[in-house]
Amino acid sequence: MAIWNLLWLYILILYVNNGRMEASHKVYPQFQSLSAVNIRQLHHTAFHFQPPKNWINDPNGPMYYNGIYHIFYQYNPKGAVWGNIVWGHSVSKDLISWKELEPAICPSKHFDIDGAWSGSTTILPSNKPIILYTGVDYNGIQTQNYAVPANLSDPYLRKWIKPGNNPLIDPENGVNATAFRDPSTAWWLNGRWRVLVGSERNSRGIAYLYRSRDFIHWTKAKHPFHSAPNTGMWECPDFYPVSLSSKEGLDPSYMGKHVKHVLKVSLDDARYDYYTLGTYLTNEDKYVPDNASVDGWAGLRYDYGNFYASKTFFDPAKRRRILWGWVNESDFTRDDVKKGWAGIQAIPRIVWLDTNQRQLKQWPVEELNTLRGENVKMSHLKLEKGHHIEIQGITAAQADIDVTFYIPSLDKAEEFNPSWEDAQRLCANKGSKVEGGVGPFGLLTLASKNLEEYTAVFFRVFKTSKKHVVLLCSDARSSSLEDGIYKPSFAGFVDVDFADKKLSLRSLIDHSVVESFGGGGKTCITSRVYPTLAVLDNAHLYAFNNGDETIIVKNLNAWSMNKAKMT
């Protein structure tokens, strides 16, 4: 066996040096290989990435390589719940239409026989991609392994090889061997590659740092790259630079004076993604969040809804950083299995630093606009208290809506109680039916004709002695007449300047998912819903206002969306 390890070591040296949640680990043994029926077409998405059946979760190591976008993802080819996990693999030229390929990685070796879990891709010198991923052995021990393309001349990189010198990184003494996973994209600094691995010890979330000169021999840093108490397991760590002055994305190895760094972790206990902005102390190989950037449950989130185990990558073709996220099923039950509901991936988004330098902003990739069809425009419409206006002329179950609201006066805004720190709880207490001063106003998406069902996406404005506070809600509590399914209200605060008294909202509606972007992408919320009446041609879309202050729909653009190609 030693001679084969040496041979693989030699092969990887040549490869590298030429030219230089898992997301949900709850196991349902009785369902793992239960064949899933095709998803009910009423709820199957048209332009989100989704297989025809079976379970998917984390987007693993998306990348751009030789003109092709690749997305890898955790996939169960045998059933509709988590289990039998392989690395699904699909390719695209535009991030919207996708071709499914055979799995890139399947459990087959002693180090990954019980699971080929999440990881990342890195483009090595001489334009050579490599996958780092977590393997789980029979004893549940998690190690970091690698795979390389079998044939670099294949434009789709269909086949991947696991060299015999795996695993590359074993959990050392002091490392929780059953909570040691999801290696990040590597970056290059001062003659060494660096990679993060998520972990947890005594409820402290940890991102361990490993260094290597050759991508083969890895050494653990003496101190964690970053950690925080009472945050639990840190899954899917992601670390990257953002420009202080431009929306352009940066290569992960870019270091300069005019950047901040982002550290994102997926909190296994919370099932949400949180990020901080901060400084990378390169001399110490440590990350320090800004004073205003909080670790853990009170911190910033990419998305305040069903969104988890996300991953970004740098797109060198268009100089942008692209974010993928899993629209997770937070309450995946036996009933869901019977219906064959599969997970989906959120629309890929560009991500950049807001000009206030306190948070990130996100927006759907421009390629999505190519699916736009019939267009309806509305402007200067008054929404009096209690009014709702139907937006007709588009397919309301499959649409893209971009609207700007104007608020003539903020005098009627309700007083904000400082104890209302939890946006989600505030939205639950003050939903779309609860009348207010300024708001609630926004959209009733996936609505039935008589409003027995709808998912409300709306703003509510409060005031303090110093400023106004804006709440964005995506409330699914009225989304379905079906009992026993998860119908939460999601919410986040929107940090906006009210000098022009305007609020913008864009919502992507796709049968069973509503992705919303408030304040130009400052606050994003994704809701997964399962209406029974508001489906297909029976779905409606309304603009509404239940606040005392009259709201003006200054501009509204709505498009029917065509179906993306998934082959």
TrEMBL record:
Chain ranges of the Glycosyl hydrolase family 32 C-terminal domain: 367-560
Domain of life: Eukaryota
Keyword Signal attributed: yes
InterPro entries (UniProt xref): ConA-like_dom_sf, Fructan_Metab_Enzymes, Glyco_hydro_32, Glyco_hydro_32_AS, Glyco_hydro_32_C, Glyco_hydro_32_N, Glyco_hydro_beta-prop_sf
Family, similarity comment: Belongs to the glycosyl hydrolase 32 family.
Keywords in alphabetical order: Glycosidase, Hydrolase, Signal
Residue stretches making up the Glycosyl hydrolase family 32 N-terminal domain: 48-364
SUPFAM superfamilies given in the database record: Arabinanase/levansucrase/invertase, Concanavalin A-like lectins/glucanases
GO molecular function: hydrolase activity, hydrolyzing O-glycosyl compounds
Listed name of the protein: Beta-fructofuranosidase, insoluble isoenzyme 1-like
Swiss-Prot/TrEMBL GO biological process terms: carbohydrate metabolic process
One Pfam family it belongs to: Glyco_hydro_32C
Annotated signal peptide: 1-23
SMART domains: Glyco_32 (SM00640)
